[in-house]
Amino acid sequence: MELPVINNTASEATKSGCSASSCGSTNDQMGHLPEHIREKVFNHPCYSEEAHHYFARMHVAVAPACNIQCHYCNRKYDCANESRPGVVSELHHPEQAVKKVLAVAATIPQMTVLGIAGPGDPLANPERTFATFRSLAEQAPDIKLCVSTNGLSLPDHIDELAKHNIDHVTITINCVDPDVGAKIYPWIFWKNKRIKGREGAAILIEQQQKGLEMLVARGILVKVNSVMIPGVNDAHLAEVSRTVKAKGAFLHNVMPLISEAEHGTFYGMTGQRGPTHDELQKLQDECSGDMNMMRHCRQCRADAVGLLGEDRGSEFTMDKIEAMDINYPEAMKMRAEVHAAIAEELESKRVAKEAKVQLVSIEGIKAKPETRPVLMAIATKGGGVINEHFGHASEFLIYEASSAGVRFIGHRKTVAYCEGGDTCGDGESALDKSLKVLAGCEVVLCSKIGFEPWGPLEAAGIQPNGEHAMEAIEDAILAVYEEMRVAGRLEAKLDEQQKAA
Amino acid sequence: MALEIIESCVNCWACEPLCPNQAIYEAKPHFLINPDKCNECAGDFADSQCATICPIEGAILNADGEALNPPGSLTGIPPEKFAELQAAQQAARHGA
Question: What is the C-alpha to C-alpha distance for residues A491 and A45, in angstroms, rounded to an integer?
Answer without folding.
Answer: 37
